[in-house]
Every structure is written in structure tokens, then in C-alpha cells.
Amino acid sequence: MINDICIGMAGSGGDGIVAAGEALLNSAAAAGYHGMLTKSFGPQIRGGESSCRLRISTQPVLNPGSELDVAVALNWDDFLKFGSELPTDARSIVIYEESAKTPDGKLPLKIAPGEAIAVPIAAIARAHGGDRAKNTVVLGLLSAWFGLAPESILAGMRKRLKKKGPEVIAAAEQAFQAGADHARANPLKTARLMAPPAARQGVWLADGNDLTAAAAIVAGCDFFGGYPITPSTEIMQTLSRDIWAYGGSLLQCEDEIAGIGACVGASFGGKRAMTATSGPGMSLKTEMLGLATIAELPLVVVNVQRGGPATGLPTKLEQADLFQACYSGHGDAVRPVLAPTSVADAFRVTVDAFNIAEEFQTPVIVLSDQEISQRKETLEPIDTSTVQLVERRRPTPEDLAGGYKRFKLTPDGISPISHPGLAGGEYLAAGIEHNESGAPASGGANHQRMTEKRIGKFAPLLKRRELFLVEGDADADLGIISWGSSAGICREAVQTVRQEGLKVRILVPYLLYPVAEEIFSDFLKGLTKGLVVEQSYQGQLYRILRSFITVPNGVRPYCRAGANPFRPSEIVAQIRALAQRSVP
């Protein structure tokens, strides 16, 4: 019996590979397993290759896993296009389409797998409903070989195909059964049946974009303005369906600039506003971010990162927009930047973003990424009754009497903010520098005071340790820092090596900017070696940290460009190597 299995599949558009992965995850979740499904697609607008990786476990999972236990290739051209996203090793079982055999009979893999099985998947499918049944045949094979909840899979298929009628359901059941029969007739050399899960009730399945949209509604989002762009579009799609029921409204604009412009206007009007985009769209929104910054208007901007620059890798993971989030735009402007590490985090971090935006009267950027946004995870139900919301500071009758000062210089830098229609609360919110009343003022002394106000008000934010996760051994001299979707990989690696007796600690920041110098310095104190792990070629967080704090010489970046995901086994190897290295 095994407790954890990682399955990777690839095929052409129309093969239903992602649908098969979703069916497996749904059935595993219904049976009580923990699981996670990541998806990857070619850059074509329609058609092209697609793949998924599915991890199923009897225990909670933090990432999509290391090398594949099982690889399914419907054709080699498509499978090999995903490279390090579908890694195999000498332990892997490779299941491939029989007609895809190479002339020399060797598999086109760098490492020979533990077992390679040629299956006439296409022929079985044609005998039971046609080529579109290939994914259902694959489900039958996997279910029988690995004991993956056949009744749950069949129940899910019946539910999904209910509207298509009994004939379609019967054909799907026959294709599934044919795959299962083939597996039973051709058993694996070494049985790898999944251990039964613990009984679990009320498990949720969601992806990061789903929960980002849900969090916006729970956080009281009144207005969404945006423009569709991969891989953030599902946030707008979900809100376009649901936001109306909660008194909000949504505007799909003609472009990215109009999308954020509408949000700036909505925030000025007293609404809690959000927009969502990806890297290229974020570039276009930069000028409007500057307007929201100088006008001190609350606003949440979600950037679901993808590979860049320019159009780059629109369907692949990268964490290379951190410089853009922290530094894009002209002038001395500071905007809080937050990042979730998982689907569940996407909810909490989005709520935090709204609260920070409202409290500090500022745009807040949420850096999600392609993996978190589109991967599905099992998670425990979220009790929304525990969510506490922060309201923007409103003017008192005294503030409105005798000349309202929208940008009043207060001890904490936060001024009461009115809205159109509030008697006595009229003010100018323009992109030009202003005095306390909002009137244009170009003097150097005034600009100094207003800049200090806009930046200094974030001082309390840098003390919030709940925006950071620290795990491991407090007295360890070896440490890991990681953020975004890379953090779950590093957390599992740290858990693994600690079980081996190594001492190590890990810091996961949800608040990336402004840099909480005290919190990072406290973590780095006593470290002689370590890694800053991130999916960007330049190691952007590492470089930012070195701009603000002293990073020990033995702590170095471990990073690379997108579409080359880290694996827990790789980080484990790096930690072991560091542990053996003597301190210079």
C-alpha cells in the first residue's frame, strides 16, 4: 500500500487529459483523500497540447509533488513539450499509447523508468465510443492499477454527463470498464495500490481564482473593473456571475487602463474596488496606480503572474513580477505587495489586501501566479463568519465643519476620506501634488511633507507578524526563505529533512513589500547558510532583501526562470548539501 501518488498526463487538445485529471481529483476528494491538480497548456489560443499533474495523498499536501510516480503519454511529442513540468525517474511507471512506439523501441526519456507499459488506448476508445473516450479509458486503467476509487469516478462521470442522456453515460461506463479490464488482465510488476483514506466530511475543491473571487465578495467588494487576460480571467468570470447577488457591480472594460481607471473612480466614490490582470496588463495599469497612490485611494489589484516579458509564457508559472510590483511607476511611491502560497491562502490574502487597502488608503497588489490561480486543491471549509473587515476612516462632523482637509497631516499619516455627496466633504482628487485640502501645491516643503505622509503611514504594517509564517528549529543555523507557490515545495522539503534529524527553519512572507526589516533580520539572525528560493531568473526577492537588510554571506539565492518548477526532492537535496558544508 502507498500513501501518496503523483500522476502526470499529457496529450493533444481534445484528448480530455485535464478533464481526466479533474475527474480523478473529484473522485479522490469524494472518497476522503487530500489532493492537488495543476494544469499546463500550450500557448495556442485553441487546440495544442495540454497536461496535468495530480497528487493524491492520505495526508494534506503542500505542493504538486516531485518526480512522477505515474506518467501517461498519449503521444510523445505532446508529452515532451512539457519538459521539467512532467519529470520522471527510475521509479516511475510510464503508460503510453501503444501506437506511439518509437522505431528503436526505446522511450524518449532521459532516465529509463521503472516500468513502461504500452496500452492500445486509442483502439480501446474507438471500440467504446470513439477517440473522445480516450480519457475515460485512461481513468479505467489508473483506477484498476492503483485502486483509485472506481465507484466515485463512475458516480462523477454519471453526474457530469447527466444532461447528455443515458446512451452517452452507458458508452462512458463501457470505456471506463474496458480500461479497467485491460489493467486487471495486465497487472503491474509491483503492485502500488493506494491506502484507504481517513473518513472526511465536507471537503471543498477549489482553485485560486475561485477563492480570490469569493474572498473579494466576502471582503465587501462593491465594484470590479477589468479586462480578460490569461491566467486571471476566471476571477472576472466568477465575479460576473456572483457579485450582483451581494449588491456589487462589474464592468468588463475595453482595455486594461480603463479597467483600473474605473476602479479608481469607484474607490473615489466610496466603493471597495478590485481589478485583476497578469504581467502585460499590469504594465498598462502603472500610471493609474500612481494616481491611486497620490490620491490615497483604497484599491486591490491582483496580478496572476505568468512567464514574461511581453507576451512571454502566458500559460506557464513564473514569479518574476516582484520588481514590477514593488518599483514600477515614477516618483517615491510605496504600495503594499502580498502573495498567497496556496489556494486556501488566496482567500485569506485577498481579504487581508482589502483590509490593508481600506485601513491605509492605498492600492495593494496581490501577486498570485499561474499555478495557484488554476490548480485545484482539496481544502477544509472556510468559516466566513470569522472574517473581520476594516473600514476606511471616515470624517467626523468636526472634520467636515469649517473646511474639510482630505489630506490632513495626522500623527499616523492616515486622513479621513469622504465620498461624493457627503455634505461638506467635497475635495479635489487629482494626480498633481496637493496640500492638506487637496488644492494643487508645488512647493518643495509641502511635497516633502506629503511624501513622508504617504510612505510613513505604513510603519505599523511592518510590525504585523501574522503576515509571516515561521516554521522549524529556532536555533538552526540553516534557513530557507520562499514565497508564492514555491513556498509549499520548500515547506515540505523542510519537514522531510527535519524528520531525518537536520535542524532547519523556514520563513514564508505573505507581505513582500514594503520590506519588514525587523522581521526578516530576526529570522536571519544566527544563520550561517541558507537559500532564498523563488521562480525568477534574477532571484528578485533576494535582491530586494539585500537592498534593505544585511543578508549573511552563506545565504544565497536558489532560483531559475519560469516553466521549470522546483520539486521537493530537489530542495531536500540542496538542504542536505548545505547542512554538510562547513561555515566559512
In total, how many beta strands?
Answer: 20
Q: Write down the Rg.
A: 26 Å
What's the assembly state of these chains?
single chain
CATH class of the largest domain, named: Alpha Beta
Tell me the helix content.
25-40%
CATH architecture of the largest domain: 3-Layer(aba) Sandwich
Question: What count of structural domains?
Answer: 4
Gross geometry: globular
Q: Summarize the main sheet.
A: 8 strands, mixed
Q: Which blocks of ≥5 consecutive residues have pLDDT under 50?
A: none
β-strand amount: 15-25%
How many helical elements?
Answer: 19
For the terminal residues, how far apart are their CA atoms? 45 Å
Identify the notable features of this structure and list them briefly.
alpha/beta, 584 residues, seven-stranded mixed sheet, 4 domains
Describe the structure.
The strands form 3 sheets. An 8-stranded mixed sheet has the order 6-5-4-1-3-2-14-7. Strands 9-8-10-11-13-12-18 form a 7-stranded mixed sheet, sandwiched between helices. A 5-stranded mixed sheet has the order 15-17-16-19-20, with helices on both faces. The mean pLDDT is 94. The radius of gyration is 26 Å and the shape is globular. By secondary structure, the chain is α/β, with parallel strands linked by helices. The protein has helices at 17-31, 76-80, 121-127, 134-146, 150-160, 166-185, 208-218, 233-242, 256-268, 279-294, 322-327, 343-360, 370-374, 397-400, 444-456, 486-499, 517-524, 540-548, 568-580, and strands at 4-12, 34-41, 49-57, 70-73, 93-97, 115-119, 204-207, 223-226, 249-252, 273-277, 299-305, 337-338, 363-369, 376-379, 468-472, 478-482, 505-509, 511-513, 529-534, 555-559. The protein starts with a strand and ends with a helix. Helix 1 runs parallel beside helix 4 and helix 7 (208-218) crosses helix 8 (233-242). It has 4 domains: 4-185, Pyruvate-ferredoxin Oxidoreductase, domain 3 (3-Layer(aba) Sandwich); 206-386, Rossmann fold; 393-463, no CATH class; 466-580, Rossmann fold, CATH 3.40.50. Helix content is 36%, strand content 18%.
